[in-house]
Structure formats: structure tokens, C-alpha cells
């Protein structure tokens, strides 16, 4: 099923056309890599989908009913189930892994936990820690984690909000080879149940994701398909790979 569709999106900043008739769709579940040269519009695409940037024209269609979510606030869009992970981890370093996850849990302040002061749902919290590979680190301070572990914690915090679509910006940047491998496995596993969009420059990492790839250039889709398919496309070679 198509979960997200951007349809004919355009946006210009001070007369510069950053996104220019961008259209493509993401299924649920699906793993999709979005690649393209610097300035291609990858970040702006995520800004538009999450409600941070308002385009000049086009539609962003969501869910079973294909409703246009453009114009909704960032928090309303997050509540619909669109989660975003920025490149730089933003975990709370002086809190434990457990506390970070607890803060992120959706509905953690439900009426009962507020009334009776119950702790956050420990079972769900453990599930998310397990999912990202941090079950053995729950009582460590986030600040003591490796760069890769911080990234996984942040992915766990994103999962705790129960998104349907995860937008993940350059997850492999700064990671060791072992951390990259763990991250590839994690993203692939998540994409069995979620729509996962990974913006990434590292072609080795993209190859290991083994998924459909969308190549952006000058604010529109230049090519789409398997990595082998797009890397043989002459336009892609000219503007991105061959430089
Ligand atoms: N708020 C803004 N004001 C002016 N120009 C902007 C703004 N946001 C983005 N741009 C411009 O729009 C173009 C697309 O930028 P964007 O950051 O989306 O590209 P990108 O594909 O994410 O690039 P990179 O791989 O370098 O992160 C760039 O030329 C950028 O300078």
C-alpha cells in the first residue's frame, strides 16, 4: 500500500527553485534510499513532509485515505505517524538509556500513570531497547554510549512514538564498520513493519540496504529503481556518480 505520496511539490527560497515538481511515493512497509548530489533537495523534501517547510505548490498525501497533510503543524504531522531522525544524535546525555526511552514513549502520561504515578511502561520500553540492540545498556548514561549506540538510542526513541514512516538522515555518518553493519540490519528489520526512508551519501551503505533507490537532482526525481538500475543511468552518472 502507498503510505506517503508527494505530488508535484515545488518550493523556492528567495527565487531559487530548491524543489521543482517533485513526485514520488513510499509504500508501507518499504525501505527506500534517497540519494543525490549536494543541494538536490533531500533535506528540503524531509522538511516539507514533516511540516517544517511549506511548499509553494503540490500535495503531500498520507495514509489509506490519501488525505493531503500540507498545512498541518509539525506536531500534528508527528502525531499522524511521521517520525524523523536527524543526522546528529540529540539524546539527553545526562540521562540513562532507560530514561531517554521512557521520555519518548507515546502516551507515557496516560491518565493512570499520571494519577497513580506509575512508571512508564517497562515492557514496551524493553521491547524498543531490544529492537535497537541496547537492552544491555539500559542503565548507562546516554553520554557514555558510542556514537553508533547514540544513533540507535535515538532510533529507539523514534520507535517509542510508534511512527508508521521513519525519515532517517545519513545514519551511517561517523560510524565504525561494525556499527554500520548493525545499522543496516536494524533499518532492514524496521522496514518489515514500517515505511523507512533513508537519506544517505555513502553508496556502500546504500548497496547493503539492498532496496529501491530514488535519485534526486535539482529538486526532482532523476531516476528510480534498484541501485544497479540507477547507477547505470547516464544522467545519474553525469550529475552524481561521475563527478
Ligand atoms: N531555508 C533555505 N533558504 C534558502 N535556501 C535554501 C533553504 N533550504 C534549502 N535551501 C537551498 O535549497 C537547495 C536544496 O537544499 P537541500 O538541503 O534540501 O539539499 P540536500 O539534497 O539535502 O543537500 P545535502 O546533501 O548537501 O544535504 C540548496 O541549494 C540549498 O542551499
UniProtKB/TrEMBL annotation:
Does this entry carry the keyword ATP-binding?
yes
Q: Which GO terms describe its cellular component?
A: plasma membrane
Occurrences of domain ABC transporter (ranges): 4-243
GO function terms (MF aspect) = ATP binding; ATP hydrolysis activity
The protein's name is Urea transport system ATP-binding protein
Q: Does the keyword Nucleotide-binding apply?
A: yes
- What keywords are assigned to this protein? ATP-binding, Nucleotide-binding, Transport
What is the superkingdom listed in this entry's lineage? Bacteria
Organism in which the protein naturally occurs: Pseudoroseicyclus aestuarii
PANTHER family given in the database record: CONSERVED COMPONENT OF ABC TRANSPORTER FOR NATURAL AMINO ACIDS-RELATED, HIGH-AFFINITY BRANCHED-CHAIN AMINO ACID TRANSPORT ATP-BINDING PROTEIN
Amino acid at each position: 500500500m502507498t503510505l506517503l505520496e508527494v505530488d508535484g511539490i515545488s518550493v523556492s527560497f528567495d527565487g531559487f527553485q530548491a524543489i521543482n515538481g517533485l513526485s514520488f511515493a513510499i509504500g508501507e512497509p518499504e525501505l527506500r534510499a534517497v540519494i543525490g548530489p549536494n543541494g538536490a533537495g533531500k533535506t528540503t523534501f524531509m522538511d516539507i513532509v514533516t511540516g517544517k517547510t511549506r511548499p509553494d505548490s503540490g500535495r503531500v498525501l498520507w495514509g489509506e485515505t490519501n488525505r493531503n497533510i500540507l498545512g498541518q503543524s509539525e506536531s500534528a504531522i508527528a502525531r499522524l505517524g511521521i517520525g524523523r531522525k536527524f543526522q546528529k544524535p540529540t539524546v539527553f546525555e545526562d540521562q540513562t538509556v532507560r530514561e531517554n526511552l521512557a521520555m519518548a514513549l507515546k502516551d507515557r502520561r496516560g491518565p493512570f500513570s499520571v494519577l497513580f504515578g506509575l512508571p512508564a511502561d517497562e515492557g514496551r520500553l524493553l521491547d524498543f531497547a531490544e529492537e535497537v540492540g541496547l537492552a544491555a545498556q539500559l542503565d548507562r548514561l546516554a553520554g557514555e554510549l558510542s556514537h553508533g549506540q547514540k544513533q540507535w538510542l535515538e532510533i529507539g526513541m523514534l520507535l517509542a512514538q510508534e511512527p508508521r514512516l521513519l525519515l532517517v538522515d545519513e545514519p551511517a555518518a561517523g560510524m565504525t564498520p561494525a556499527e554500520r553493519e548493525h545499522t543496516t540490519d536494524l533499518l532492514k528489520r524496521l522496514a518489515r513493519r514500517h515505511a523507512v526512508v533513508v537519506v544517505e551519501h555513502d553508496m556502500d551503505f546504500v548497496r547493503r540496504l539492498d532496496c529501491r533507490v530514488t535519485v534526486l537532482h535539482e529538486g526532482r526525481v532523476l531516476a528510480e529503481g534498484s541501485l544497479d538500475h540507477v547507477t547505470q543511468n547516464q544522467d545519474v552518472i553525469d550529475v552524481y556518480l561521475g563527478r
